[in-house]
Amino acid sequence: MAIPERQIIVCQSFRASGGDPKGLCHKQTDGFLQYIDEEILDRGLDCLVTATTCLKQCESGPILVVYPENWWFKGVNSKDVIDAILDGIEDGAPPEEYLFSS
Predict the structure, then answer these.
(1) For 67-78, what is each residue's pLDDT tens digit?
(2) For residue 64, how far is the Cα from the chain centroid?
(3) Is 1 part of a structural domain of the chain?
(4) Cβ contact 43:86 at 8 Å
(5) What contacts 24+ positions apart, CB below 8 Å, involve 86-90?
(6) Are strands 6-14 and 64-67 parallel, antiparallel or unpaired?
(7) Is the Cβ–Cβ distance between 76 and 64 less than 8 Å?
(8) Residue 5, Cβ neighbours under 10 Å: how many?
(9) pLDDT, tens only, 43-61
(10) 20 pLDDT band (50/70/90 cuts)?
(11) In this structure, are residues 101 and 72 in contact, taking their beta carbons and an 8 Å threshold?
């Protein structure tokens, strides 16, 4: 299996201890992993989608990260935001309105 060109990390906010074990990101991203996977296939992008534990940015969540660009996106709470991020991957420029840091 070839190494993918990009990795998309989606916070699912599972916490080992302290606070709600399923925090903000998990509650607001139900079904997003499947949607992202389907869109990646439809667009022919070479990306691996990975769910992760808490990224410790709860006040800005849900969080999505694109590597190797190191684009961190905040407020990823709708399919429209995901579409804008995937458009940015295709265009080579992140959608600034959702960018947390770069």
Answers:
(1) 999 999 999 988
(2) 3
(3) no
(4) yes
(5) 86/36, 86/39, 86/40, 86/43, 86/45, 89/6, 89/45, 89/47, 90/43, 90/45
(6) antiparallel
(7) yes
(8) 12
(9) 999 999 998 888 888 788 8
(10) low
(11) yes
| The total number of residues written for the chain in this structure | 102
- Domain of 60 in residue numbering reads as 6-101
The two structure tokens encoding residue 62? 């849900």
We report the CATH number of the domain holding residue 50 as 3.40.30.10
- Is residue 89 within 8 A of residue 48, CB to CB? The reply is no
**What residues are paired with 66 via a beta bridge?**
8, 71
**What is the DSSP pairing of strand 64-67 with strand 71-73?**
antiparallel
Q: Choose among 5, 7, 98: nearest CA to 57.
A: 98
CA distance 3 to 34: 20
Domains of the chain: total: 1
How much is the pTM?
Answer: 0.86
Smallest CA-to-CA distance from 5 within 35, 53, 62, 43 is with: 43
